[in-house]
Structures are given as structure tokens and as C-alpha cells.
# Entry
Amino acid sequence: MAYACLVRSVVTFTCPDGPGIVHSVTGAVVLLDGNILESQQYSSPDTGRFFMRFEVEHDTARDSLHTALKDVARRYHGEVTTDEAGRLVRTMILGSKAPHCVSALLSHARVGSLPITVPLVLANHDDLAPLAQFYGVPFESRPIDGDDAKAAFEQRVREVISQQDIELVVLARYMRIVSPELCDELAGRLINIHHSFLPGFKGADPYAQAHARGVKLIGATAHFVTADLDEGPIIAQRVTPVTHARSVQQMREIGRDIEAVTLTSAVKLWAEHRILLDGVRTVIFD
Amino acid sequence: MAYACLVRSVVTFTCPDGPGIVHSVTGAVVLLDGNILESQQYSSPDTGRFFMRFEVEHDTARDSLHTALKDVARRYHGEVTTDEAGRLVRTMILGSKAPHCVSALLSHARVGSLPITVPLVLANHDDLAPLAQFYGVPFESRPIDGDDAKAAFEQRVREVISQQDIELVVLARYMRIVSPELCDELAGRLINIHHSFLPGFKGADPYAQAHARGVKLIGATAHFVTADLDEGPIIAQRVTPVTHARSVQQMREIGRDIEAVTLTSAVKLWAEHRILLDGVRTVIFD
Amino acid sequence: MAYACLVRSVVTFTCPDGPGIVHSVTGAVVLLDGNILESQQYSSPDTGRFFMRFEVEHDTARDSLHTALKDVARRYHGEVTTDEAGRLVRTMILGSKAPHCVSALLSHARVGSLPITVPLVLANHDDLAPLAQFYGVPFESRPIDGDDAKAAFEQRVREVISQQDIELVVLARYMRIVSPELCDELAGRLINIHHSFLPGFKGADPYAQAHARGVKLIGATAHFVTADLDEGPIIAQRVTPVTHARSVQQMREIGRDIEAVTLTSAVKLWAEHRILLDGVRTVIFD
Amino acid sequence: MAYACLVRSVVTFTCPDGPGIVHSVTGAVVLLDGNILESQQYSSPDTGRFFMRFEVEHDTARDSLHTALKDVARRYHGEVTTDEAGRLVRTMILGSKAPHCVSALLSHARVGSLPITVPLVLANHDDLAPLAQFYGVPFESRPIDGDDAKAAFEQRVREVISQQDIELVVLARYMRIVSPELCDELAGRLINIHHSFLPGFKGADPYAQAHARGVKLIGATAHFVTADLDEGPIIAQRVTPVTHARSVQQMREIGRDIEAVTLTSAVKLWAEHRILLDGVRTVIFD
# Structure
């Protein structure tokens, strides 16, 4: 058997579209005796960009693979990322009082169906402390009771990101607006769950709005956060039917379940490098 | 057997909520030796109104049933409707060029899964003539090329309603804004299909908007038409998942299917007296 | 205000179908000055039985309501149950090693969206002990390593039911066949989650079977347990799409989520008295 | 612009899995100055086979492309198909009395959302003649009232296939068992719609079976036909929720809609070369 010490890597590759890209990319892989196991690609007619994600088995160091692909990327004015397949992504969760999304993330991480590790749950209330403790995850709470406190909270977010090598920040019903500066700093790695499906009902208490409007479906949207509130690129959306007989309270309960499922699926897509950005749209290689 | 000549009726009953209503309503049915076969009720906490729909077998004339229930309704300051179960509702379809919704309505009517009869398909183009002909349904087209023409078109709608005893008017991708006056005249019996789910994308070419926004779900909403465009009470909503790889054109195709299914289901609910109005919301007794 | 001390009760009523039942039932409620808030009924053409569920507000003792309805039930050779609306149902959970269903039940009970209280989680392994501890729920494990041990385990189930006034027993991935005797003793109050949709794949490792067969949907079924394995009355079913690219392992993960959601919804229906038995079918008043 | 006369082709490529395949395939495309627009691939861990489908723009004749790829296929002991993208696939429809599936296929073909052309609808009854006539499609009926008649009918199927260059045969509620011989002759190009989801209820009147069992979901399965009845590779499956209140007749109506949608989607996948066979499973490049 040729593979003395087999490594499995995940690669993403994007560049302006044109002929020969796949051949060049796979050529680099072939030269390293790599074997492509799963591959998806997409050419965007809207932006003229090419997107590719693949998983590859190889017996060389990942560095060699990265260097080889970097050369190809340079030739096509593109970008490449390589990572160890299945590596646990260092993820900070920002929460508030509601446990359902935090609980879903931590329990999926625990059973191994969500490849993240959580160095810290940071919240503006104490309520989630026992939940974090159950899952053996560090927890910290800092009240946000004014603009200064909010700035201090966000400063703490930056510190943790830096000290703990955080790659992804998840707003798990954090309920606060993130400052435009922090949104920009975390562009493409700050995910939020919106309690209703965008661009449906925006702003406060969407379930009350949905109930008042008499909708027959409610849902949730997971999206990247940008300074333009609730308008960041959409990652995942789910809906579930409701009837006239559902109260606002019941719609919130139904909403909690669908929020937890939708956010978890979006974080999983991110952690597996399945989300690529095509302007304001996402390419999802599911 | 007690029922010499068995009749099956559908009854709807609404009034301000309070104790004893169901007992009084069913009391009237019992006195006529009726047998309730299917019954649904709902008390709206929002408006304080009570809603009931039931199907009843009886061997008396429907007139007697109606008179008896009318007495109960008077006592509770409510309203009652009675109808023959399964009767074909006289429905006018307004169309334009797109065949998918008209085709769905006529084919379901033909096979007996949609209890309507269609005295006329009225359109502002000729395109749907052969489709109507295939189903043996009268067809008439009148161009709408100005404000006068539109007023004349709507006058023709009123004439047909009057001459043909039309009960329900369905906008099957009619693509024109109905005048506020006609909306008011047809309040509660004018149904539209909106090509996207409300209150999502409003106005022109929602699939292009949905595509640009990168949504992961598209859908359709069937609703009553009111003078307030696209804000009438919602009857039915459906969605289907889409990926980044779907072009605007493909999203339109997917949309066509979901529009046809959603509109057909809403018309069926209406024809079976399963839609009651609770302010701006619908109560659906499905 | 007339209601000095308002009580809200849930009532179910079933009997052979015939005229006048609803009038008689509601008459008893009217005599007690009760106000019916939500009501559903169904007449089964298959078995000729009548089913009704309603919620009622009254200022009398529940005993008076029950006695009055019992009289009506006697007249119609039927059965009646009355209960306090929202009362927490005493539920024993039987588990094994897999945490997902137990976790879903306990967390929904904790946040108040599932009206059960759990006096004991009883399992044949220790794995779930910390989970129960987190939710402050008593836990007990007893290995089952032979026929005698199984009989002893089931004897312990009977003891707990008796000592703790258990009303409902839930098999949350318990992975053992319940003896026909215990099935009979717990008829109508023993719920199982089947990992695949019935009557699809029965027996061992259904996800492997589903994968081998190349299905495009997988799902879960919550059902009452009867001595006839996997053939008890179906309570709830859900499915989710899968593609050829899903491995057996991934299908199991997807399956875990859908099992947890489906079982939780079935237990909620039971705890709210929304499930009535119509022969081998269930009537669900959702 | 380099492309004097631009051609768009669809290519499928399968072979035993191994390193370098994609590089070789795309190399052949690059040599012809082709530009890959959409590409999907899959390596089956079950069978060890590699599957690829892509669409390519090129200005050479399709023959040159096919020849070049054929060389690559030979090297990898694989198989290749090339076709003009969007070409209408010559499809024969076999029907009986029920119109819903035939109607869905013909109307989607008419509006251009299903790339097939239908040289003949062949049925064992006259009922569908006007439907075919409306869509301008030749129709022929031959009664099947015995074994000899069935053999003659199938002989006619063979004749039409040969004379009309039929590529795909669709059983649109044909309601007859196809002989094992004809199944074998048409392996991989004979599609059926099964009224219920496999491997759920097999055999006669599945809706009656589903109703008797009290299922909460009904659905449909489109699959390739093999001599092993209802066990051919699954192409597409859909379900829809039903309640206890649905009669067998209503379940059949709901089923008709879902059958038509599911069959149409399967035929579209086939016509676009999106279905590849991986043993008894299908790989769907959607």
C-alpha cells in the first residue's frame, strides 16, 4: 500500500472563472499522489467566479499540498484554503438567557456530530452557567447595561478570540446588536440565527408579528452578520407549518426548535468548510 | 332506517364568544334529527370571536336547518351559512398568459378533486384559449391597454358575476392590480396567488429578488385580495428548498409548480367552506 | 366577574356514534356554567365511533364536571376523562446508552414546553447518569444480561409505576423488546420511537437497510407499543430528505435528530390528552 | 471571442475509483479548449466506483469531445456518455386510465420545463386520447385482456422503441406488470411511479393499506423498473402529511398530486443525465 501515513484534507479554491482551472487544481493533487474523495464545484453566472471544495487523501504533509495549490491559485488570481478533515473548529458562543441554541450546539459537539470545540461561552447573564458546566465548557458572564459595558463586552470578545485562537463566533440568541466595527473584523466568521425567515419579519418579536399577520409557516434563518442588520448572506433556512390555533407563545416554542436545528446545521456547514461567499450570496457545498 | 331522503349540509357559524354556543347550535341540529359528522371550532383570543364549521346529515329540507340555525345566530349576534356538501362552487378564473395555475384548477375540477364549476375563464390575452377549450370551459379575452380598458375589463367581470351567479373569483396569475372598488365588492371571495411567500418579497419579479438575496427556500402564498396590495388575509403557504445553483429561470419553474399547488389548495378550502375570517387572519378548518 | 376561582380542564369523550352526543355533552357543561375554549371531534367511518376533546373553563370543582359528564357517557355507552389543563404528567423514561431522545425530553420538560415530570430515568447502562443529574432527575441503572435480569428489570418498572404513580412510560431508545405481558399492562400508555418510518424498515439497524436500499428520505415513527412488535398504533411520523452521498453513519446522525423531535412531539400529544385510540389507528387532536 | 460556434454538452463518466481520474478527464477537456460550467462527482465507498457529471462549453464538434473522453475512459476501464445539453429526450409514455401523471408530463414538456419529446402515448384504454390530442401528441390504445394481448402490447412497445428511436419509457400509472424480459431489455431506461413510498406498502391499493394502518405521512416513489417488482433503484421520493380524518378517497387524491410531481421530477433528472447507477442505488447529481 502506497499510503504510509494517510492524511485527509479539505480544500476550498475560488478564483475568477475560466477554462482549465479544475485540470490545474487536480494536476497539483495528482503530482502529490493524492486521491480526491469528494468534490463539488460551481461557476457563478452572477459574479463570474469559480468555487470548488474537495476532500483529498494524501501521504504528504499538508504543507506540501498547500504550497502546491497556492501556486495554482496564484496563477488564476484565486484563493485557496486547506485544513485537516474533521478537525474541531475553535468556536466561541455568545449567549444571553435562552438555552435552546446553546444547548443544541454543545450537545451535538459532545456526541461528535458537530466538529467544533468551545473554549468559552460568553454571555451577558448568568442563566446559562449550569448548562455550560454540564458540558464541561468554560463560561463567563458580563452584564451589558450601557454603551460602555457593551464596548467592554466586545473588547472581551476580541481578547478571547486572540488568546484562544477562536476561528468562529456564533450568536446563539445573543439578543444584542453587534457593533459595525466588530462585524467588519469578524466578516465571514460571525454567524447569527434569526428567529423568523428572512427577509420576512425583521426587528423585535417576529413571532408576534407572524401571529398578527396570520402566517401559515414560520421558520428560522442562519446568516452571516454584517453591519447591515439582518441582511448578511443567508446560510440556511427552515420552516414548519402552523395553524390559526397556535398562540404567540406556542409559535415561540415551535420557533425555538427550528432555530436550534437551523443554527446547528449552519455551524456544521461552516466547520466543514462548506460555505463559500459569492458576493452577498452563499455557495453551500452540502 | 330513519332517513328517508338523506341530505348532507355544511354549516359555518361565527359570533362573539361566550358560554353555551355549541350547546345551542347542536340543540337546533338535534331537534331536526340531524347527525353531526365532522365538526371543528375555534375561539380567537385576539378578537374574542367564536368560529364553528360542521357537516351534518339530515332528512329535512336545508331551509328548515337554515331557519333553525338562523334563530340561534340571532340570539348570539352571529352569522350562519348553510350549503349542500360537495356542491360545485361557481368560480370565475381571471388569467393572463401563464397557463400553470389555470391548468391546475381546471384539471382538478375535471377529475373531481376540486368542487368548482367554471362558467368562464376571462383573460387579457388569447394564450389560454386552447387550454380552456380542452377542458370544455368558456373562454373570453379582452386586451387591457389603458385605464379605460381596465375599467371596461372590470365592468365585464361584474357583468359575468351577476349573469352567471359567480360566487368566487380566482386570480390565476392575472398579473394586474385589481381596483380598490372591485376589491371591496368582492371582499372575502377574491383569491390571489402571490409568487413568493408573503410578507417576503413584494412587487415585481420576486424570484429575481429571491435569487439576488440568495434565499434557501422559495414559496407561494394564496391570499384574499384587499385594496392593500399583497396584505390580504393569508389562506395557504408552501415552500420548497433551493440551492445556490438554481438560476432565476429555474427558480421561476420551481415557483410555477408551487404556485399551482398552493392556489389549488386555497380554492378547495374556500369551496368547502373551510375558511373563516378572524379580522385580518384566516381560520382554516382543514 | 362570575368566575370566583377559575379552573381549566381538558376533557376527552368517546362513544358509539349517533345523533345528539355533542348537544348532550355541551349541555352538561352549560349547566355548570362552563365555557368551552377549544374543541375537536371526529366520527370514524371505519369503527363507527365518536371522539371528542375539549378544554373548558369553569368555577366548579372538577369532580362536579366529571360526574356530570360521566352521566352523559353512561347514557351513550361511552367513556370520559377529565384532567387539569397543563398538569405535568408523571412520566418514567426507559433508556439505554443513546442520549439524544432522553436529552430532548428532559430539556423540553425543563423549559416548560413539554408538560411532564420525570420521577425516574431507568436504564440498563450507566451512561445517562450525568444527563439525568444535570436536569435534577433521579436515575437508576440495572444491567440486563439474561432472561432473569430482564424479568427483574420489568418487575422494577412495575414497582416504580406503582410507587410513583407513573402515568406514561416512554421508551427513549431503550433498545430492548418489552415482554408481551408488560405491553398488555401498559396498553395505550407505553410509547416507543422507531428509528425509521414504519412500515418501512423493521428490525435491526434500519439506517443500514435504508442506505443499502438507496432511499431518498429517512424518518422516524413514534407509536404505542403492543405485543406485536413495531405494529402498534402510529402517533407521529416525520421524514427528512437524504442523498446518495450520505453514509450510514451520517444517516444515523440525521436520524437521531428526527427521532428526538418525533418522540418529543408524541409525548407532548399524550400529555395533553390529544391522542385517542380508534381501533389500531390513532385520532390526533392537534 | 474565441468560441466561433459554441456548443454545450453534458458528460457522464464512471469507472473504478482511483487517483488522477478528474485530472485526466479535465485534461481532455482543456486540450479541446472546453470550459467546464457545472460539475459533480462522487466516489462510492460501497462499490468502489467513481461517478462524474459535468456540463462543458466547447467550439469543437461533440464527436471530438466524445473521442477524447472515450480514450480516458478506456484507460480507467470506465464508461462515458456525451450529449447535447437541453436536447429533448425521445420518451414514450405508457398509460392506462388515470390522467394525472400523463397530464403532468405533457404539460411540463409543453411549457419547456421538462426536456422530453413524446412520439407516442400508448395505453390499454381510450380514456387518455383527448388529453394527448390537446397536447398534440400521438396516442394509441390497445386493450390488454389476456396473456396473449399483453405479449402483443409489449411487442408493440418494442416496435415503437425501434421505429421511433425511443430512449426512455415512462410508466405513468400504467397499472400492469411489465414482463421480466422487457424489464431486462429496458434496464436503466424504464421508470415507474409507485403510489406510496417504498419500501412501505407494496402491491394493490396502498392507500387503503396506509389508511388502515393509520399512517401520518403518505408519499410516492419514482424508481427504475426491474424484474424484481417494486425493488428497482429509487430515483425520487416525496411525502406529505395526512391526518386521521383523511378518508381512503382523500388519500388517493393527495396521492395523485404527489405521484405526478415525483414522477415528473424523476423523468427530468433522467432527461438531464443526472441519474447514474451505483449497483442497486442511484447517484443523483441534482
Notes: The longest strand of chain C covers residues 7-16. The interface with chain B takes residues 17-20, 22-23, 26-27, 29-30, 33-43 of chain C (CB under 8 Å). DSSP finds eight helices and 13 strands in chain C.
